[in-house]
Model the fold of this input.
Amino acid sequence: QVQLVQSGAEVKKPGSSVKVSCKASGGTFSSYTISWVRQAPGQGLEWMGRIIPILGIANYAQKFQGRVTITADKSTSTAYMELSSLRSEDTAVYYCARVWFGGNWFDPWGQGTLVTVSS
Amino acid sequence: QSALTQPPSASGSPGQSVTISCTGTSSDVGGYNYVSWYQQHPGKAPKLMIYEVSKRPSGVPDRFSGSKSGNTASLTVSGLQAEDEADYYCSSYAGSNGYVFGTGTKVTVL
Done:
């Protein structure tokens, strides 16, 4: 049973970057993609992008194009999401989630990583 | 890509049913049978409740059911229980645009 374990909370200054990790335990990256979804305080879920780890191919929601980079390290079954040019509106909990090839639903989810952007 | 539209809130007494709608377009909900629903309790990660419009993952009670007509999907929770009080989000595959989530519905058990 795959579990996704994310890195810990971060506090960042406006204009800086943050890199959040998501490690798959109990399985490997062989047959699924990893998506990143964020949730601002009191707000809904927002899909940011995804990666196919075995191919290293990523695609992004238009809103985040140019500011987000999603990568994966097959050797450690870890995906990463880096968001640059941070602003206060990027304060949110960031989740990773698995999507099976041929399926288009998110399961399971990581526990979430709170990123706070504050001067 | 605009968020799918859900009612902000829904409520029912224990044992009653509540239905949540999720309205999109022909580019997402109406174009694919890839609507999924997620339950989120405060401070927790979302949990998959329904996938491919109406399928339930193992371990999800059969009180939860899903359907779709045109550009609108629905989640029905029958026999409401106290533990069903949570936020619910729909999601749809949107082709080259990836995925889109609904605005979320807070379900209150009265």
In short: The mean pLDDT of chain A is 94. DSSP finds no helices and ten strands in chain A.
